[in-house]
Write a structure and sequence with these properties.
7 strands; binds uridine-5'-diphosphate; binds magnesium ion; Spore Coat Polysaccharide Biosynthesis Protein SpsA, Chain A; 10 helices; alpha/beta
């Protein structure tokens, strides 16, 4: 049996969601029937140890025209599951959704309509988020900081429910836990990002896989993203500037101390103590060394960039208007 190429690819990363999979499949099917476009549902089983694999196999048997299952050998994390989903999706529009039915499959048509307004990525915004305070509060702080510092005006970066044009998922490189920053990375590439308020429900069954601890990880990742989106292309601009400033301060301190030394040792001016025991000397020397190290790191960064340079990654083309040449134009005879 073969199936036609789908237009829509639903990607569901899941870890131990046995009791959610059947109702999820049912409601996705109902919602996608409404949309009326060819679709696939790609479940990425991120190393489940419960009955999820058996249930997915059964869903595949019952609905082989739509269901696809990718099973990881072990738990690799949600970002890896999404990456695998993006890489294997056959559709032109990709939809990601958590497996626990916290997001409502009935909102898919509205999300697609928003995408059709001319966006490349639509992120769901859980206006009335149904999670405990220990999750929603850190999340608010996180969203506020990320939105301010990146200029990507979204209220909810971390919602698993998003709709993408294929070009976005083909371009954005994901590793670690960077899935939270897909909108930032996409925006940086010039993709048009929008959000749509959606309903949010308590988990249908099972337990959450994340705790409040992700806030800290989220901020570390944010540091990475800021670096990747601003200074990755010019590492010396970041390290060189701070290095030069610190080196400059160190140099001034040591010049001042050298001047005192001259006055005392050569000029014979009375009342000036020895400089060798002054804490300021240590500060000056440290600052000079630190400055040189920072500049060297910046230069090393530039070197890495030089050797890993790929011209196609220096820009992102939205479209090209041109006329195809015919196959058999006359070739130059040399
Ligand atoms: N998930 C996953 N791999 C993991 C952790 C979570 O695929 O290592 C899936 C999980 O099964 C769910 C989605 O990611 O479909 C979101 O997880 P969860 O609902 O636990 O997060 P919360 O909604 O509590 O923030
Ligand atoms: Mg959830």
């Amino acid at each position: 049996m073969t199936v036609p190429k789908p237009l829509l690819s639903l990607i569901i990363p899941l870890l131990n969601e046995a009791d959610n999979l059947r109702p999820l499949h049912e409601r996705l099917t109902a919602s996608l029937a409404q949309v009326g476009q060819p679709y696939e549902i790609l479940f990425v089983d991120d190393g489940s140890t419960d009955a999820s694999p058996a249930i997915l196999e059964d869903l595949f048997r019952r609905d082989p025209a739509h269901v696809r299952v990718i099973q990881f050998r072990r738990n690799f994390g949600k970002t890896a599951a999404l990456s695998a989903g993006f890489a294997h999706a056959r559709g032109q529009v990709l939809i990601t959704m958590d497996a626990d039915l916290q997001d409502d499959p009935s909102e898919i048509p509205a999300m697609l309509a928003k995408l059709d307004e001319g966006y490349d990525l639509v992120a769901a915004w859980r206006v009335d988020r149904q999670d405990s305070l220990d999750k929603t509060l850190p999340s608010r702080l996180f969203n506020f900081v990320v939105s301010r510092l990146t200029g990507v005006r979204l209220h909810d970066f971390n919602c698993g429910f998003k709709v993408y044009r294929r070009a976005v998922t083909d371009t954005v490189r994901l590793y670690g836990e960077l899935h939270r920053f897909i909108p930032v990375l996409a925006h940086q590439q010039g993709f048009r990002v929008a959000e749509l308020p959606v309903q949010h429900h308590p988990r249908h069954a099972g337990t959450s896989k994340y705790g409040a601890g992700r806030l800290l990880k989220g901020f570390f990742d944010f540091g990475t993203v800021l670096f990747l989106t601003t200074y990755l292309k010019r590492p010396l601009h970041l390290f060189g500037a701070s290095g030069l400033a610190i080196f400059g301060v160190g140099t001034l301190i040591n010049l001042y101390l050298a001047f005192l030394w001259l006055l005392r040792e050569v000029g014979g001016v009375a009342g000036i103590g020895p400089i060798g025991t002054r804490p300021l000397l240590t500060v000056g020397v440290l600052a000079m060394i630190l400055g040189i190290q920072l500049i060297s790191i910046g230069l090393l960064g530039e070197m890495l960039r030089y050797f890993t340079f790929r011209p196609a990654e220096e820009y992102a083309i939205r479209r090209v208007l041109e006329t195809e040449t015919t196959e058999n134009t006359t070739h130059l005879q040399i």
